[in-house]
Amino acid sequence: MKSARFSLLLFILLTAWMNSGFAADAPASSKTYSLNRCLQIAAEHNPDIRLAGVQFVAAKGKVIELRAILYPQVDVQALTTPMDIYVQINQVIYSEATFPQLRLGHLTEDQAVINYRQTLNDVVFQVRQAFAAVLAASERVDILSKFSEGKVASIKSAQQLFDAGQVQKSVITNIQVQADLSKRDLANAELAYTQAKLLLENILGQALPSSARFVGDFSTKLPENLDAGKLIGVALNDREDLKLLESLKMSDEQKIKIDMKNAYPIVGFSSNSTIQPPATAFSNDFNAEANFNEPQTAVGAGQTQLPLSLYATWILFDGGNLRGVKESDKAKIATREIAISALKQSIPGEVAGAVSRINAQRGSLQAIAEQPKPDELRKLSEADYKAGNIRQLDKVNLENDILTQQMLQLNSQYELSLAAAALDHALGHGLKIIQSAAPSPHF
User: Fold this and answer.
1) What pTM was computed for the model?
2) Which of 79, 136, 190, 423 has the most crowded Cβ, counting Cβ within 10 A?
3) CA distance 270 to 284
4) Residue 141 domain-assigned?
5) Over 90: is that where the pLDDT of 272 sits?
6) Which CATH number goes with the domain that contains 165?
7) 3-class DSSP state for residue 346?
8) Using CA atoms, how far apart are residues 245 and 336, in angstroms rounded to an integer?
C-alpha cells in the first residue's frame, strides 16, 4: 500500500516537474520545437498518457469496492400506517476471500502505476522516433535544396562555356537532366517531411503550425557498456510490461480465491431489528427492555430491539459450478504465464538487436568520417579543372558523389538515433530518461 501511494505521488510530482521544467526550457519562439518541448506536449496531450492517468481514478474505485468486505452493510426499509422501520445490519467476520480481496486491491493500485510507466516509456520511444524522422526529413530537404540550386548554377556556367566554344551542347543537356532529377528528389523529400510531421503530430496529440521549425541533432546518450548480456539483465529487471504481466498473474491467483469463497464457510453476524419513531425519542416512559415500544408484529415474535445473530454459510455441493470457475481461472493464469514466457524470450532479441544496430551505424559513421570532406573534394576538383586534368562535367558529377556521401552520413546518424531509442525502450528506461534529463534546448 505504501509503495502504491509513493508511486502515485511520484506520478504527480513527475507531471508537475515536466510541466514546469519543460515549460521553462521552451524556446522563445512558439514555432520552434525541440525534442524536449515535444515530450512536454506529449505528456499533456498524448491520448495514451491521458488514458493511463485516468486509470488511477478507476483503480481507486476498484480498491474501494474490493475493501468493502471490511465494512458492515446496513439496509433500511420504512413502511407507513403505522410507521415501521426495518433495519438490517450484516457484517462478515470470516471469509476465505477477505485477504485475497485486500491483496487484489493493493495489486490494482500497483498496476495503475505500472501501466502509466509503461505507457510513458512507449510514448517517449514513439516521440523520439518521430522527432528523429522529422529532423532527418528536414535535413534531406536542406541538402537537396542546396544540391538543386547548385545544378541550376552549373547550367548557367556550362552555358557560358558553351557560348565561348569550350564545351559541347551535350554537357548542358546532361546537367539539365540532373537538375530536373534533383527537383523531383526535392519534391519527394518535401512530401516525406510533411508525412513525418503529421506522424509526430498524431503522437503528440496536438497539431503544430505549418511554419513549425524543428531544432536539435541526432546525438544521444548511450550506455558506456554496450555488453548485450549485461543489458539484457537490466531489461529483465526494469521492464514495466514484464512487471505488469507478473502483477496480472498474481491478480488472477487472488481472483481464484475470491471466486472460490463459497467453497469455504463464511461466518458473520446480522441483525433484523424493527423500531418505531417513538422508540427513538428521549421520553421518560421509554423502556429499552420492554416490547411495547416495538410494533406488535415484533412483540408477537418475541424479538428484542436489536436482535443479533451469528450465521455461517457453506456450499457443500453446487453441481460443479465452483470447479468450473476454478478451472476457468486457472486457464487465465496459464495464459499469463505463456505471455510472460514469450516476453522474457523476446527481450534478449530486442536488446541484442538494438546493440547490433548501434555498433553497425557507429562503424558506418567512422568510415564516413575517414573520407575526405566535401570542401576538400571541391578544392581538389577545382585544382584539377584549372590544371586541365578534368572536364566541366566531371566537376558537376563530383557534386553527385558529395550528395551520396552526405546522404549516407545523414542516414547513419538517423539510424543510430533510432537504434539508441530502441535500446532505451528495450531496457524500459523511458521514465528514467525524463527523470535524469536536465532541462536543455536539446533534450
Assistant:
1) 0.79
2) 423
3) 30
4) yes
5) no
6) 1.20.1600.10
7) helix
8) 7
